[in-house]
Amino acid sequence: MTALDMFPITRRWPPRDTRAIQLYSYPTPNGVKASIMLEETGLPYEAHTVDIGADDQFTPEFLSLNPNNKIPALIDPNGPDGAPLPLFESGAILIYLAEKTGHFLPTAPRARSEVLQWLMFQIGGVGPMFGQMGFFVAFGGKDVPDPTARIRYVAESTRLLRVLEARLEGREWICGDYSIADIAIAPWLRTLLGPYDAADLVGWHGFANLPGYLERFLARPAVRRGLLQPPKD
């Protein structure tokens, strides 16, 4: 018997290496935050595919780890004091892994607060607004006759892009050095060119700084690996 056996989720997604971090996720913009961070830090982990198209996130096993039925979630078998630590919410996962490894989150209070502000900017702004825009532009909401919601979320997503564009003036990364703020923000920018096909709607090609920023992010080897984890079944 191992320490991970106490977690019901491991009965549905059994670990192969009980010493590795167990990641339960799917390659969405939120999901890949965790896998990219794990790749960037080099922590050993196993990625288990929670197929959100098949409603895996609503199973009792997954809900035992995250009652809010959202990916990603993880278990670190070597958490604080050596005891296993379960975690959900992508932002909390990024902060935890940064503190565990000492990477991508400054310890100096002023620099740390700056990174955390931009992380929260993604969690409270970019993620929800881009997600709603995607729904009304590319998914179920695109067939809603009333254009009000579509107009609102395209406009708000464009405004957020302008904020990021201004922030990147003279900077390679959001807070100067590469950080968890970039790991949180950049995967959402990628949706504009991919599943949402919204680049023209938000004027992506008219921005001077954002396209190069996304290219730098996607050129990182750890990012390329993390985008593929966990694999889609």
From TrEMBL:
PROSITE patterns per UniProt: GST_CTER (PS50405), GST_NTER (PS50404)
Annotated protein name in UniProt: GST-like protein
Residue ranges occupied by any GST C-terminal domain in the UniProt entry: 108-233
InterPro entries linked: Glutathione-S-Trfase_C-like, Glutathione-S-Trfase_C_sf, Glutathione_S-Trfase, Glutathione_S-Trfase_N, GST_C, Thioredoxin-like_sf
SUPFAM superfamilies in alphabetical order: GST C-terminal domain-like, Thioredoxin-like
Family of this protein: Belongs to the GST superfamily.
Coiled coil (UniProt feature): none
Domain GST N-terminal: residue ranges: 18-105
Pfam families: GST_C, GST_N
